[in-house]
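Schema walk-through. Below, the input block comes first and the output block second. Nothing else is stored per chain. Lengths vary across the set, and this one has 401 residues.
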Amino acid sequence: MIQKHAILALADGRIFTGRGFGAEGSATGEVVFNTSMSGYQEILTDPSYFGQMVVMTYPEIGNYGVNPEDEESKRPWVSAFIVRELSPVASSWRWRQTLSEYLGEHGVIGMEGIDTRALVRHIRDQGAQMGVISTAIPEVPRGVIAKEHLQEIAVRLVEEARRAPSMVGRDLAREVTTRAPYVWTEGTCDPIEGRGSIRRPAHRAARSRRVVAYDFGIKRNILRKLVDRNLEVMVVPATTSAGEVLRMEPDGVFLSNGPGDPEPVAYGVEAVRGLLGKKPIFGICLGHQILGIALGGRTFKLKFGHHGGNQPVMDLLTRKVEITAQNHGFAVDMDSFKGRDDVVLTHVNLNDRTVEGIAHRNLPVFSVQYHPEASPGPHDADYLFDRFVALIERSEGGGML
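--- output ---
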C-alpha cells in the first residue's frame, strides 16, 4: 500500500513523522498549539494565524466537515494544520466539503498521525518556534521510510526551519489587511442558511452610530457583533491615517485582531496616537497591543502564546471571571507604565497573570487581549461590545473609568 508521508522538523532539531492530507509540498511557519475542541474552520480562516502552523490538541478533527457559513475570512491563513487523527467522514448536515478537500482546494498542507501530545509538551517546554512541514518524500511500499533516508531529509528540513525568519520584528498585518475600504452590514442575527439562533445583544445604540474598524486581520464575527449593536461599520485598511479616519466623521473607532508582532506596525501606532482623545476607541488582540504602544507602553513575546477557547480572565472592574477565546503570541508589558496612574489594568489572565485589558482614566479608550466575539469559543465576553456602545454614547466627556 502506498502512503503519503509527512515530516515536521522544528528549528531545535526535533522531528515528527506522520501522514499528509490536503495539499502537497512544503510549508514554513511558527508552530503553535490550539486547545479548542471544535471550531477548526474558524481557526483556519482567522487571519491572526498568518505565518503559523496550528497544532490541535483535541485528538480527532474534521468530523463535521467544512461549510461556507463558518469562515471568518475569505480563505485559510494558516501555513499548515496538524492533527492527531483526521476524521474519515463528515457527519454534519451542514457540511459541504471534507476538511482534507477544503485544505487541498486552498493549497494548505495538513498532517495527521502525529503524536500531538508529545509535540505540544515540547512546545510548552521549549517555546513556540519555527518549523517546516514537507510531504515531498518519495513514496515507498508498506509505508516504510528507510532510517538513513529519513535522517537525510530531516537534516535538510531542520536547516530550512533555522533559516526561516521568526515572528519577532515582522509586519504581518500589512499582508492580511483589506486593500480598500468597504461597508459591512451583516449581523449575527441575520437569517443566513445554516446558522443557529443567536440571542439578541443586550445593548443596542439608541440611534445608528458610525464606527470605523481598522482591519489588521479582522474576523467576520467581530463585524457582525458591531452591526448587532446598531452600528454602521466602515472597514478600512491597516495603513489608513488618523486624518483619513477623522474625515469620515465616525462616532467611534475599532482596532481589530491581527497576526504577528505589534511593534513593526508603526503606521497603526501613529494613527492611533492621532486619534487619542478625539474618538472613543476599542481594541482587541493586536489592536489592544497597538493601543498599548500608542499610550507609551511596550510589548513582549510570550513563550508559547495563548491559543484556544478556555483561558480564564478576571474583569477587575466587576471582579467577575470569564472564560475567553484567545489567539496571540505577544502581550502588553504593564511594567512599562510604571510611575503612571492614567493607564489602568482592567483584565488579567488567571493562568499566568499577563495583561488581558487596559483602559485610560481620562481618555475614552479601552482594549482587551482576547476575542470577545469568540467564533469559536465561549460568549462570556460579549458584554465588551455593549461597553463600547456605552462609551460612544457618553463620549462627550471623561475617560473609560
